[in-house]
Specification:
The chain is mainly beta. It is built from three helices and 22 strands.
Length: 297
């Protein structure tokens, strides 16, 4: 009778845990799985993920594919990774909203990663440098020197700061800044250290690229061969245009333009116009909204 009682108690408890969630050292699980210490105090131990020598060794159990959301610790790259079935790919080392591991020295062509919820893959130029295979956010228009603060959205609101009431703007200023006078810059004249904003040799909070990546220099673009241009940019030329800072933030479809991080004049920086098999480098007012294509440092 006693054996039956314990069997009934175990069966009832297990069945209840299946309905409410599985709790380890807790009778009130707060999720599908809730791990706790015996006495409810703060634990000094963590959850150890299943460790694999390489994600290539991870196998599926059923349905002929790895289950969406599978989590492992990749010993080859020393990082946790999650499988995203809709991309048919693993994330790389992740933390917070930016999932990036391709900053490592082992990064190579055709590696892929997720940054700000967009999937990117790596392409190698004839000079051996690694480029992203698409522009940042795929449809963003950055004013030169600004970070990913929201202004880059093609549907962001606009604001006219002339005469400019603030010496500089922070990364939580989300509007696209427009100017109607001869000033071609969104930055107040009192700020003179323009090169620091997208300087590839320093760490700047205004760098819109993933960690370990940069906005390319004028020289980075000019060193590309015809084959590189076609490989990196394909046949997307003449489809992007510019968001105009001297108008109402409207668009002009006069070509495919990308920013460099190179200063040109007091209120202008170097941009590149990409067409099939060629690149033209020219000055551009900094309040213009152009595309950004990142290059690995």
């Amino acid at each position: 009778m006693k054996s039956f009682y314990f069997f009934f108690l175990f069966y009832f408890s297990f069945g209840f845990s299946q309905i409410q969630g599985l709790g380890i050292n807790t009778h009130i699980p707060k999720g599908v799985l809730d791990l706790s210490t015996f006495d409810g105090s703060n634990s000094t131990m963590g959850l150890v993920l299943p460790r694999v020598d390489s994600i290539k060794s991870v196998t599926y159990i059923r349905d002929n594919h790895i289950a969406h959301g599978t989590v492992v610790y990749d010993l080859e790259n020393n990082c946790p990774r999650v499988y995203l079935h809709h991309l048919q790919n693993w994330t790389q080392c992740f933390g917070g909203k930016n999932t990036v591991v391709s900053t490592s020295e082992s990064a190579k062509e055709n590696d892929c990663f997720i940054f700000n919820n967009v999937n990117y893959c790596l392409l190698k130029s004839s000079t051996g440098k690694l480029w992203l295979n698409k522009d940042l956010e795929d449809s963003a228009y950055y004013q030169w020197g600004r970070g990913s603060d929201g202004h880059q959205s093609p549907v962001s609101s606009v604001i006219n700061l002339n005469p400019k009431p603030i010496p500089f703007i922070s990364n939580n200023f989300t509007e696209f800044i427009i100017n109607y006078n001869t000033d071609k810059n969104w930055i107040d004249p009192s700020f003179t250290n323009h090169s620091s904003l997208w300087d590839s040799n320093t760490i700047s909070s205004y760098n819109p690229c993933p960690s370990g990546w940069k906005v390319p220099t004028e020289e980075d673009f000019s060193s590309l061969s015809i084959g590189d241009i076609n490989k990196l940019f394909g046949f997307i030329a003449n489809t992007r245009g510019i968001r105009q800072g001297d108008k109402e933030g409207t668009f002009s479809n006069n070509g495919y333009f990308l920013w460099t991080n190179t200063i040109d004049q007091a209120d202008m920086s170097k941009a590149v116009k990409v067409s099939s098999g060629s690149i033209l480098i020219l000055p551009q007012r900094r309040d213009s909204g152009l595309r950004v294509r990142c290059l690995k440092k």
